[in-house]
Task: structure prediction
Amino acid sequence: MSSHAPQKDKRQNVPAIRRRKGGRRLSMVTAYTYDHARIADAGGVDMVLVGDSVANVCLGHDSTLPVTMDQMVYHTAAVRRGIERALIVGDMPFLSYTVSEQEAVRNAGRFLKEAGADAVKLEGGEEVKETVRAIVRAGIPVMGHLGLTPQTVSMLGGYKVQGRSALAARAIIDAALGLEEAGVFSLVLECVPTDVAREVTERLEVPTIGIGAGAHCDGQVLVFHDLLGLSRGGHTPRFVKRYADLATLAVGAIQEFVGEVQSGAFPAAEHCFQMSEGEDQKLPASLSLPTRGAVADGLVAPTPDDEPV
Ligand code: KIV
Result:
């Protein structure tokens, strides 16, 4: 096993994730479907986040706002079916936890009850603290999310680094402490300066998971499509590290398929099926029989179709 191979453990759980504070770094990747989940799990991530970024990367929207609770439950259930080991975190979509605490608890519960998630994530600080408390009180583990919070991008004036000034940094640190007091089991820090993420990480007892938040966090998260080079076109944020270029590989493979279909090189003999032994000889005679109902009428004997495809 190479020194870069991920360590394999049994199924993850919330207390085990919490115990990793200050220890072996946590890895999280987004996943939106069964096949993403199988790839992420096989790669050995500790957590998969069914992010509301599904709106952008899978559904073609230009923000996370349009994705609905039903869509998030649908995608989370698909991810659940693909996971054996990682902890599954369902991302609560825009307006699913801010209208009332009661609705927030009910929606958070849907991720666990209907989709099989282990926890939920929601964005915000002081303004969602009591909601976090209510969800945790209902027995649902919550991951917080501070810094650049894409659901409130209009309020933030765009996708910008947060906490650059001392005052703004202080607000993030205070919000992080408030969320911890309300019961979050971990906290995503998105697009904040390295020093701010380090301060938060040192002050919290729960693990911080960074995305564009420097190297001092207890873990890191990346979007599946960014990490694998599956997103084509558009702006790639500076914090993304692309570990593969699957979109180029995929487009190349499809171009090759199109070319081979056009040239007749595909399908080759090994991709084709043959009639049962001797049956091809009988075909001309059977063609002289009435076509419709010939098998049903017993004029043509059905042959065993037991060859697996
Ligand atoms: O939805 C998402 O992908 C996220 C991550 C960026 C943390 O919230």
Remarks:
- Residues 14-241 form a domain with the TIM Barrel fold (CATH 3.20.20.60).
